[in-house]
User: What shape does this take?
Amino acid sequence: MQIISAHKNTDFDALASLVAASMLYPGAQALLPSGVNQNVRSFLSIHKDIFDFKTAKDLDLSSIYRLIVVDANRWVRLEGLDPLMRRTDIEVHIWDHHPEIGDITPTWSRQDSLGATTTLLVEAIRERGIDFSPICATLFLAGIYEDTGHLTFPSTTPRDLRAAALLLERHADLKVIQTILRPTYGPQQKEILFRMLADTRRMKVNGYRMSVSKLELDGHTPGLAEVVSMYRNIVNVDVAFGIFRDTRTERCMVIGRSGIDSFDVGAVMRILGGGGHAGAGSAIVKDATPDGIEVWLSEAIQDYRQLPVQISDLMSFPVDHVTPETPMKEVATVLNEKGYSGMPVMEEDRLVGIISRRDLNKVKSRQWQSPVKAFMSRKVVTVTPMHTVAEAMRILIKHDIGRLPVVQDDRVIGIISRSDAMIYYYDLIPE
Assistant: This one.
């Protein structure tokens, strides 16, 4: 017998991958973990007669000669398959969109860094010319949409979009997807969100703005992932974690959400024995207190190697500037010739103001020989070289300005503009 397994707390990417893998491995038995997320549970309650799922406890594991693992690469994420860990007489195939190597040693694998594992399998189905129904097309598209945030997460690739286009051509139903991917948010989730906000503590770890909230819950609570996403948005941090201790089982569910592409929350969750991707991850931790897990998280983030890009890596220098006595006509000429939207005004090494193209609009015809100090802005917003690009962008947006002098020890050592930030965020090649 050959079996197909996905990770615990099955989401739509894992469910869709199970079904897609069943098409690629005819005769293989798909195993559905006992724990699935609420949206998947609702979907299966309607479609359970369409799909043939079993659990590991329904099977004689001694008869298995091939294990196909989808959307996971660690044994701890699989349910009921521990007896297979030490067997050397079985083939193991892995299909996964997490490029990190886990502790499952495959005899064959396809692991590409994509938005969803479903994309990998849909590509293989297309290559082999396998036909599938609109219902399957809808499920596959739900898997891709869920794990890519409807194709908006930074982990989304052109291959995810091409797979989604193929599924739409095969009559995937977007109305059904809107229904099945609807977040679980009711009075219970609202109460948890309010409790998390009341417990909010913001901190800065390794350059990241982080918040951790710890709660005790009585039994399983659906929709926690959506609550943590809302929590991160409301408290406006780079990374947020919810640590939920189930008082019945004494296990802790840890859910993380990241809003920046420089921090892979899934990598941190893998340290805790869980998984995920850049924007989202989770882990179930046994025999640990919420306080201990918080310390664990802080240490993991402190040691996180993918450091955010600092302004010092991106700023322009040396800094073109004018003096307070420079005539406005000369300033206008420099701005036009250089293509700048503004320039610092400096007296020796000291920053005394900033002049922008908008200030030129204040100049009347008889004033073009007046010094720039008569028109410059004296309230200058600055940053340090240790600020991140994301922090600089927030400052630029907050103050509606086009450039930020970079100051260290009261000296201007560089400047970062909106254009510099756009080059970084969109991987543009400067002209």
